[in-house]
Amino acid sequence: MPxxxxxxxxxxxxxxxxxxxxxxxxxxxxxASMQVRGCAAASVxxxxxxxxxxxxxxxxxxxxxxxxxLRCGSGPIIDALQTRVPVQCADTLDEVxxxxxxxxxxxxxxxxxxTLCAGEQSVxxxxxxxxxxRAMHLDQLQLxxxxxxxxxxLVGAVSDYRxxxxxxxxxxxxxxxxxxxxxxxxxxxxxxxxxxxEALARIxxxxxxxxxxxxxxxxxxxxxxxxxxxxxxxxxxxRASRRRSPAAQPRRRPSL
Length: 256
Hints:
With 256 residues, the protein is of the alpha+beta class. The protein folds into 2 domains: 3-163, Beta-Lactamase; 173-248, no CATH class. It is built from 9 helices and 5 strands. The protein has a 5-stranded antiparallel beta sheet with strand order 2-1-5-4-3, sandwiched between helices. The protein is rod-shaped and about 90 Å long.
């Protein structure tokens, strides 16, 4: 496969509005197993803070072998993480470095493997598995190295997207909360003939005395004014409730 085609197919996985780390990793594992010569199956593991944060594979046996390796704490993935260089197993039948891993690999029909790492904060470990001895060679794995690098970049992009979405939601909630407080201030200013600062001070005082958030106090003020429950910013219907204009509702003097 030309490298430009590999880059195009990998980039196509990053449809951010619908991307998830698990789906992207699975598709990358499938891509590696199909495009790297001699590779019959592949697994991709993401490590954060010394632990596996995500794991996907092209075939169930690849996942099973990775889980066995992680459980026994010995194998090519562990060595690749420690050395940050590609680790090759030419023939699992002759392997003496990781006896438990090699025995499990033979049982599952895996006769060779190559493992590569990429990334810094989120380290992506790509394991390529072959069913014939010496089916893959390190000097022929430029595609695999690119897949590992693309995997790390993709994982980082998905993580950044999630963070930005989380920040957006937090900002939206903050803006909605402020709008709720502003509505409550307007009601208090009209009902108590006070200034905006005095109305805000009344809301803050009730918040401290009742051990509540200011938005909860504001919701109670609107509830007393409209005669119907007003959702706080944490409730699913909060945005719809906050968009209701007090001026359009029957006016009642709030009970404070």
